[in-house]
């Protein structure tokens, strides 16, 4: 027995849709690991290396969240990023959207259902169900504790800066410190252009988070 059903509001749908749109540029498929507490999305560059990893608390992302499986209520699945991106984007103007694990023609799929302007929109995305125990191949990569951590401002200001300077040079240099300052620098043979942000909030970690590897499916 394996069940998953959740509703996602408009604001959170925009966050998830934006994340998937970024992943589309990296890989054609991603792996989603659902637990009672979180949603993890990963992309593997090779058999051993994780290229992209993201984890979001289900309480911050979903409402009316329900998950059930024989493996400690954990579900691991693979889905196409382009299909998922289009399905989520179609519901971004709706007040809410529903995601659920279903079967169509005897095959598993992730159903994305929404209603906008009195029109029902449904996408049935083919998925490949993986053994929850295989989540050990999709854990967050081990990286050194960062020396500088800053909370970035909301909005598109950083992206606007990068979009403007990427036509000048393919490399952008970033300098930051725990005083709350970050500098973007791009240079050519004739000029150096810098953009400064100040009064950012530093973030201090107090300890390592524990990994939840889920259970083996019998």
Automatic annotation (TrEMBL):
Family, as annotated: Belongs to the HUS1 family.
Chief location bin: nucleus
Keywords assigned: Nucleus
PANTHER family xref list: CHECKPOINT PROTEIN, MITOTIC AND DNA DAMAGE CHECKPOINT PROTEIN HUS1
Pfam family, any one: Hus1
Protein name: Checkpoint protein
Gene Ontology annotations of biological process type: double-strand break repair via homologous recombination; meiotic DNA integrity checkpoint signaling; mitotic DNA replication checkpoint signaling; mitotic intra-S DNA damage checkpoint signaling; nucleotide-excision repair; telomere maintenance
Top-level division of the source organism's lineage: Eukaryota
GO cellular component, one term: checkpoint clamp complex
Subcellular location(s) of the protein: Nucleus
């Amino acid at each position: 027995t394996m069940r998953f059903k959740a509703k996602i509001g408009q604001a959170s749908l925009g966050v998830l849709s934006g994340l998937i749109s970024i992943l589309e540029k990296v890989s054609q498929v991603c792996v989603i690991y659902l637990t009672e507490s979180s949603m993890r999305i990963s992309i593997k560059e090779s058999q051993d290396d994780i290229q992209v990893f993201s984890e979001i608390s289900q309480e911050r992302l979903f409402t009316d969240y329900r998950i059930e499986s024989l493996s400690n209520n954990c579900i691991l699945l693979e889905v196409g990023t382009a299909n998922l991106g289009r399905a989520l984007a179609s519901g971004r103007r709706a007040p809410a959207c529903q995601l659920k694990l279903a079967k169509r023609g005897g095959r598993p799929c992730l159903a994305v259902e929404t209603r906008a302007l009195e029109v029902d929109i449904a996408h049935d995305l083919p998925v490949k169900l993986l053994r929850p125990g295989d989540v050990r191949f999709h854990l967050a990569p081990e990286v050194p504790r960062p020396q500088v951590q800053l909370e970035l401002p909301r909005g598109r200001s950083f992206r606007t800066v990068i979009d403007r300077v990427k036509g000048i040079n393919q490399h952008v240099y970033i300098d930051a410190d725990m005083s709350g300052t970050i500098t973007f620098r791009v240079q050519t043979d004739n000029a150096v252009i810098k953009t400064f942000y100040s009064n950012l909030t530093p973030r201090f970690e107090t300890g390592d988070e524990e990994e939840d590897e889920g259970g083996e499916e019998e």
